[in-house]
Amino acid sequence: MIxxxxxxxxxxxxxxxxxxxxxxxxxxxxxNSVARLNPQVERFLEWTKNDEDKKNDVLWITxxxxxxxxxxxxxxxxxxxxxxxxxxxxxxALHLNQYSWAKVLVSYDDGKLTSATTLFYDYLLEQExxxxxxxxxxxxxxxxQYDTWDWEKTGLLKAKQLNDLFSLLSLDEFETRMIERxxxxxxxxxxxxxxxxxxxxxxxxNRYIRKKNRELIQTFIGEHCVGIVHAEMYHSELGNELxxxxxxxxxxxxxxxxxxxxxxxxxxxxTDVSEVAGKFGGGGHVKASGCTxxxxxxDLFVKEIFPLEPSKxxxxxxxxxxxxxxxxxxxxxQNKEKWFxxxxxxxxxxxxxxxxxxxxxxxxxxxxxxFVKRQYNAALSRDDQYAEYIKEMKKSKS
Length: 398
What we know:
- The chain is of the alpha/beta class.
- It is built from 14 helices and 16 strands.
- The protein has a 6-stranded mixed beta sheet with strand order 6-7-8-9-11-10, sandwiched between helices. Strands 2-1-3-4-5 form a 5-stranded parallel beta sheet, with helices on both faces.
- Strand 8 and strand 9 form a beta hairpin.
- Helix 1 packs across helix 8.
């Protein structure tokens, strides 16, 4: 019997679906959270050591990383004649490539990012456990695009919709639907009912993101300017959209207090959130990582920021106080302090704080706005506040 231990997210489930399509009853799939994997692997290794009927069982692990103790035990298991295969695409698992039974690949030779599902599909094809077809190829690519967020670059909304459907159904129901569909259909499609509930889910996600944007708290943690929000669902969508709405933030930390987890997301190339997660014993991708809520993480992301007020959001429907206006636009923070960003005669962007010029200038509006938002936690003011500020400015000059 082959035992596949994989993650319980879409990418991990993709591996489980492929395994069942390829091997049917010859494989037993175990879906795990990050925290549950190592105890499960330890249990498997104990089975094969002590149970004569299980000594020939095969170990496969995808999309989750084993700890150092288990990696040494697996190495011994293989040396004793056991069979194991580890496949992962997380940067934080690259050290496992030292073992013959492990393959960790973050990207292909052409630069395309990998996912656990694509690596596992490659392995099954190579071992001739499965045959490629158009429906399978598309299913695997949709999972890869969603897991790596390439769908945002390519505009392939279908990849996001696949994950939305996964979140709406139970794990068993989603797995059953996908296996039946991939067995019977030449092209991978959503049926009419699924399309209807996906539209409803999209509307729900958008409302949730707007609500959480109003709850976002901004602070500095180390050298990073961070947005912190409490949320129990839609972490990937939240992290991506809140990052775009608040481009000045280095990363978004999403706290799930019930699950005692922290998810880290960034849209920037200059920030590696796998390194951030690593400081708290976690890991993951460069732009999407996570960790458990350790005491240290709790102090930094919950206890110390609890007294802070949520950040103001930019006024959404302005006609006059608009960004990138050379004549100036107004920003204000929770304490009613004001910053006016405008272009000077040298076409540099300067900042006035309560009508007093700050001793710095910027080459672009975006740089000036980033400075004001990061250092003073200010947001674009409403048109009426802008009009009042301009009136006061004219009075002071007359």
